[in-house]
Design a protein that fits this description.
Layout lengths: L4 E5 L4 E5 L5 E10 L5 E9 L8 H16 L8 H9 L9 H13 L5
Amino acid sequence: MSDIEIRDDRAAGRLEALGDGGEVVGHIEYFVLESPAPALVPVHTLVEPAHEGKGIAGSLARELYAASGREGIPVAPLCPYVVKWAERHPEEAPAADPELLRAAKDWLRAHPGRF
């Protein structure tokens, strides 16, 4: 994998992977669930076609869970890629609380234009 920098644009709900030239080569779109408890909720992962197969999506997922651990906020993944990544890396990605997953799905249904 080429060197990438990952930055969290919390206000925009995007965890972004920056390539060598500073361009965004991939991202995870997410929101912060507030109730019944705070949680990071990834909804969509995208890697630009020219950068696929370089481990960027996995690096983004790993950083999302690392940020979760640093902040003490669980992840409630709705993004299919992040769900599969978490299943393959249980030592880095604690299982999601079913109540938080239900609340995240409810939030997403209540905000249909957000993602």
